[in-house]
Design brief:
By secondary structure, the chain is mainly beta. The chain contains one helix and six strands, in the order E-E-E-E-E-E-H. The chain has a six-stranded mixed sheet. The longest helix is centred in the last third of the chain and has 4 residues. This is DUF2171 domain-containing protein.
Length: about 80
């Protein structure tokens, strides 16, 4: 897992394929909380979702890059309760 302390608020989260996954609201423990406006799809839209820190491959130039492609990474999004 990458060092999550380097992740800044409003950083873009992208998949390994370079596709936008979300925008960081903030880091909570070992998870990234995504902003509401940029989180979830369909009935899951409009509330916060979380990405496990274990999916973070690295943080470069204010961008969080995941180890999975975007279409796979969104299937791992978690609700608040985890």
């Amino acid at each position: 897992m990458a060092d999550l302390s380097n992740i800044k608020e409003h950083a873009e989260v992208i998949g390994a394929d370079g596709v936008h996954v979300g925008t960081v609201d903030h880091v909570v423990g070992n998870r990234i909380k995504l902003t509401k406006k940029d989180s979830g799809q369909g009935e899951h839209k409009g509330h916060h979702h979380y990405i496990s820190g274990g999916l973070v491959a690295g943080v470069e130039d204010g961008v969080v890059r995941l180890s999975a492609n975007a279409d796979v990474a969104v299937t791992f999004e978690e609700e608040e309760a985890g």
